[in-house]
Amino acid sequence: MQGVGAIVLAAGEGKRMLSDVPKVLHQAAGSPLLRHVLDAAEGAGIEEIVVVVGRGAEMVRSVLGDGYTYALQEQPRGTGDAVLQGLPHISASCQDVVVLCGDTPLLRPETLVRLIAARREAGAAAALLTSVFENPYGYGRILRDDSGLVEAIIEESDATPEQKGIKEVNTGTYVFTRDALEESVSRLQPDNNQGEYYLTDCIRILRSQGRRVVALTAPAEETAGINTREQLSLAEAILRKRECLRLMEAGVTIRDPETTYVDKGVEVGRDTVIYPFTFLESGTKIGRGCAIGPGVRICGATLGDRVAVQFSVIVESDIGDGCQIGPFAYIRPGSVLAGNVKVGDFVELKKAQVGPGSKIPHLSYIGDAVLGAGVNIGAGTITCNYDGVQKHQTLIEDGAFIGSNTNLVAPVAVGKNAVVGAGSTITRDVPADALAVERARQSVIPGWSKKKKKGNEENESE
Questions:
Q1: Are residues 188 and 324 in the same domain?
Q2: In this predicted model, what pLDDT tens digit does every residue of 112-132 receive, in sequence order?
Q3: 376 annotated as ligand-binding
Q4: Sequence-separated (6 or more) residues with CB below 8 Å from residue 148
Q5: Alpha carbon of residue 52 to chain centroid
Q6: 12 is in an annotated binding site
Q7: 386 assigned ligand-binding residue
Q8: Active site residue ranges
């Protein structure tokens, strides 16, 4: 969007959150509150954005990165002072300046587009976004003149009992012409009960000059700010609902949206079915025709088409087409599964590369390992990858068969089509097509159990 800049206020202390983390960095649907606000601004086409930071400034910078301009509000002297710190960083080519609160994660890009258009179409000095709240406590109230035009905004702490009964509130989202903002913010005075510079007073200043201010009303669900942990949970529920709706509109079946947790930006292909108590976290991509859940957590992983996962955890791994995962499997970061791999119950993979058609059906740990195609891993197989100092790799080539209850002590390799007998502890490489068996010879002592039982009975009778 041409000629528009934005100042995002992210310097608030957030005292009611009772946290060492800046309020704007608390997460909802997998992203910081501030990230949601920035996404809305960028989604509206605003390219020039200044973030005003205060408490926890370095923490905010480290989370957002270097893609934004930052202005520092050294002392918390109010929203007007925060804008005053950010305004010099907005280039002269921006004739519209949007002001946003960093704790309003539900704001939609299209609402910002409408607000900017409302100011321009009315030729107004400013446009503000309002909402009607059944419980407006804590918000500035909108005062209108007899003709219905916005006259001023009165903060909760300065409002009279009559004014506190007004349900239309200021949401903290504005669009000013640059000249109107520069002039009005420079005239702010801290003559209020909080001793702060209120940005809301800019509206009164502009109206006193006979300049026009218009308002656009948005649903309360979209404009609510976050000040408490309860409000954070309510906002997250709304964001989750939006994400579930987005996926369903794209051809995904979600059996129970109320118990499905989808972070912002998760991608899921059509005809995939998501069952209850599934968590799809940031960075996750799932293909078509999959069955996910119930009881699944997938974090930052990529799944191909026709993958089935139930009662399992997959973190930062790549899962090929047609794989079957679970129940009760744990696939840790760095694992890569080719197509049609089976990872069954109580199997843990860590930095494992598994070739097509291989099977690890149950009760195994495969870590720092490379498995070829068509490998079969018997129950209870362990890759002993750690010697107490460093990790070592296990290589199992195509077609190898590993018997149950086997220990593969890395570094070690099992060749193509080799067989390892059940109960073996393998410490040396096994050549292709060989059989490796390592176990103590079985001894059978006839009648031993009866003799032992008789001896025990005699001891008890003495």
A1: no
A2: 999 999 999 999 999 999 999
A3: yes
A4: none
A5: 23
A6: yes
A7: yes
A8: 362
